[in-house]
Amino acid sequence: MKIIAGVYQPDEGQILLNGKNVSFPNPGSSLDSGIRIVFQELTGLENLSIGANLFLGREPRKGFLIDSKKINQDSEKILTKVGLNRSAQTLLGELSLAERQLVEIGRALSMKVQVLILDEPTSSLTLEESNRLLTLIQELKSEGVSIVYISHRLDEVQAISDRVVALRDGKNAGELAKEAITHESMIKMMVGREVDTSRIQRNAKSGPKALELINISTERFPDCKVNLTIKQREILGMAGLVGAGRTELARATFGVDTCTGEIAIDGKQTHLKSPHDAIQKGIFLAPEDRRNVGLTLTSTVSDNLTLPNLKTINKWLTHRSKEEEYANEGVTKMGVKTASIDTIIGTLSGGNQQKVVLSRWLMMNPKVLIVDEPTRGIDVGAKAEIYHQLRTLADQGIGIWMISSDMEEILRMSDRVVVMHEGKISGELDGESATEEQVMALAVGNTNATNQQNGVSQS
Amino acid sequence: MKPRSKELGILVILILLVVASALKNPNVYSGANLQNTGRLIGIYGIFSLGMGLVIITGGIDLSVGSLFALLGVGLAMMLEKGIHPVLALSITMAGGALVGWTHGLLVTRMKLQPFVVTLCGLLLYRGVARTITEDATKGFGDATGFEWLKAAATGSVIGVPVPLVLLVGFAIVTYVLLHKSIYGRYLFAVGKNEEAARYAGINTRSVITWAYILCGFFAAVSAILLAFYTNSIAASTHGNFYELYAVAAAVLGGCSLRGGEGTVFGILLGTTLLQVIRNLVNLLRIPSQLEFAVMAIVILIGVLADTLLQRKSNKVKTTKV
Question: Which domain holds residue A221?
């Protein structure tokens, strides 16, 4: 999609528009060809009015001044079309997410449009608003506009599509004609077939409960209460689509965000108000955003490794030799490949950076280790090493809560699989027997389908 | 260890300036001039160190100059009223720390920008100082009852001015704190990447708040020395722009306003360079109206040279890889 927008350039291949070969060397060039994209992340400027946003960059003018009268008149027309009952002078920041989505669509429509691309347009809309949008799409279709509708909400896809194309790992994974569109057929296409399912065998049985989340609600999903248990000696795989609330749950547990509900460690209730508290109690998080919050990229390997544990390594003043010893031990433990412990960590590969993140916590005897997308952006070799390490840790008695969008990883590593969908836990599966279809169905919120299909009862 | 190119560059500039001007005007070497410059370096150095701590967290303290006025007139008025000098000194220093603590709380708890918080401080403390003195100039007169204090603040130890001696003490303490203690490591970690530091379990709020407390305390010590040095404190002008001397010294000495970078040695060099320039402007009979302009040019040259050097070394690195 970003290639079509002209943000990225294709490595190879060509784009045909109305049968003609076209290229979009920079953002904006595809706009001239009548292609409109509404991105999932809202892009409008909150401090400007709806009208100003609609005509941003192409304001009608009266001499040197902006013709606000014309903006307001034209805006009202567009707003009527998309069904948004607001004055054009309202500030964008005052609108709800759904209304802003409509403004974005209105902006796209206010220009000459041949192809309209909508990326997850309903992800922030209520049911009613979604329905209005779907009606609008039907209208546009009848006006001759081609629409690409990107969504993981299979009901909507089924309701409006004339044709469905599935992408998986950047490849075209199949296409369905209108008659063939069903939930099952779409899920089948989404999961594909070429997954390595060789499990990484565990050598120990799950122990008692290490960490319990009781009725936890995060800031992002204040209405969803989540219950979750992580046992000693197990890897709990947490699957779900991007934005399902997995990272938020982990952040809340680690004390980065505030949450309501209760947390118990080893059966004892406790409060984790900050990462500091969590670390004291042996709960560690290797965050998803490794480069910005997991590490300080401009510091050395040694500084990053020792930072959380400086008080144990040193007494009052810092001792260079003790820190070196500690850092070397950490590097060896995880097999980090680095020229020296004084190397700036930003120059290491992603895999080695991640190993430092893990090693930093291993050195502090974790009780529960939360790893969020532990192998994102990491090469195959380092991946295998990290899998091996996580397994060993679990066997040693640590509870591992692994959040991952990598289906292969979930199926190969997990002793139990928990799937989240829109802030709630939509189901739990046994790690040994879980299949890709089951996980995917739960991830799109399709709890019933799984039960019927496979006869597995959910608890 | 990292190369100390920043400090080295500024040291070279400093030596060149001193040598060149000494050749032109041998008065630079006169005992009285050295004494006076040393005294100023001491006074300015102490609060510049405090400012450096705050800048390393990625913050700034613009209120220092106004704080000098407030604490200065406060001290003078307390002594005037016959409050015991030791108590008056303690109140002044505690006051500085308290002001810093308030800044720190506003920055960390209320999530206000340091620039805004301390800008309000700049306006507020000056206003309070002028109001309580009704714009009358305060001083210590002949220091009846606290002669020893005046002598200590304005005197010398074996020829070295007291403020410079104190600066050496403060520099050693700050050096240990910044470069040898765990707190120092936290300070740099917070300055480089506050979120990452928080994820590593560091209590970032208290680390930052302490930097402001120390800055306020250091400023209070300087305020006492400065008050006795000038011996005439007009609330409307006393200490005007002094915070900018400290910012300039820290930046010249290699601190980045983005935070996470800086050394005690660098800040000391920066302070010294600025005072030497001021002194030279005087001695070389450059019109004193030009003083700020000359400083600006030296700071620009220093910072530009550093940026260019860094760009060059980065290029070398990337071509190697």
Answer: 209-454
Residues in chain A within 8 Å Cβ distance of B200: 275, 279, 307-308, 360
CA-based Rg of chain A, rounded to a whole angstrom?
A: 25
Q: Is A321 near chain B, with CB under 8 Å? A: no
> Cβ–Cβ of A360/B189 closer than 8 Å?
no
- Which contiguous run of DSSP H or E holds residue A351? helix A350-362
Inter-chain touch B189–A296, beta carbons under 8 Å: yes
Give the number of other Cβ atoms within 10 Å of residue B267's Cβ. Answer: 31
Q: Does A314 touch chain B (CB under 8 A)?
A: yes
Let me know whether A419 and A282 are in one domain.
Answer: yes
Same domain, A28 and A149: yes
* A214 lies in the same domain as A180: no
CB contact under 8 A, B196 and A285: no
Cβ burial of B8 (10 Å; 0-12, 13-18, 19+) is exposed
> Is B172's Cβ below 8 Å from some Cβ in A?
no
Does some domain include residue A198? no
A48 and A9 belong to one structural domain: yes
Helix and strand tally (H, E) in chain B?
13, 2
In chain A, the residue whose alpha carbon lies closest to the alpha carbon of B203 is A276
**Residue length of chain A:** 459
| A252 has a chain B CB within 8 A of its CB | no
A307 near B CB under 8 A? yes
3-state secondary structure of A231: strand
Interface check A278 vs B, CB under 8 A: yes
pTM: 0.80
Where do the structural domains in chain B lie, given as residue ranges?
5-21+30-320
pLDDT tens series, chain A, 459 aa: 667 777 777 777 777 877 777 777 777 777 777 788 887 766 778 888 888 888 887 788 887 888 888 888 888 888 888 778 888 888 888 877 777 878 888 888 787 788 888 887 776 666 777 777 888 888 888 888 888 888 877 778 888 888 888 887 677 778 888 888 887 788 777 776 555 557 777 777 788 889 999 999 988 888 889 999 999 999 999 998 877 889 999 999 999 988 888 999 988 888 888 999 999 999 999 998 888 888 998 899 999 999 999 988 887 788 888 999 999 999 998 889 888 999 999 888 888 999 999 999 999 989 999 999 998 878 777 888 899 899 999 998 999 999 998 888 898 889 999 999 888 899 999 888 888 888 888 888 776 544 444 434 443
Q: In angstroms, rounded to a whole number, what is the distance separating the alpha carbons of residues A99 and A87?
A: 12
| B60 lies within 8 A of chain A by CB | no
- Does the beta-carbon distance from B181 to A316 stay under 8 Å? yes
Its ipTM equals 0.82
Residue of A nearest to B176 (CA): A317
Helix or strand or coil: residue A237?
Answer: strand
Which residues in chain A are closer than 8 Å to B182, comparing Cβ atoms? 310-311, 314, 316-318
- The answer to whether residues A215 and A252 belong to one domain is yes
CATH architecture assigned to B5-21+30-320? Orthogonal Bundle (1.10)
B173 contacts chain A (CB < 8 A):
no
Please check whether residues A232 and A273 belong to one and the same domain: yes
Which of B185, B193, B196 is facing A310, going by the closest CB pair? Answer: B185
Radius of gyration of chain B (CA): 20
Q: Give the CATH number of the domain where residue A88 resides.
A: 3.40.50.300
Interface check B256 vs A, CB under 8 A: no
What is the token pair recorded at A224? 């969803």
Nearest C-alpha in A relative to B186: A307
Task: Name chain B contacts of A314, Cβ cutoff 8 Å.
Answer: 182
**Could you give the C-alpha distances from A395 to A200, A334, A410, in angstroms and in order?**
12, 16, 17
Whats the size of chain B, residue-wise?
A: 321
CA dihedral B149, B152, B153, B158 (to 10 degrees): 180
Residue listed under structure tokens 């070394």: B313
- Assigned domain for A203 exists: no
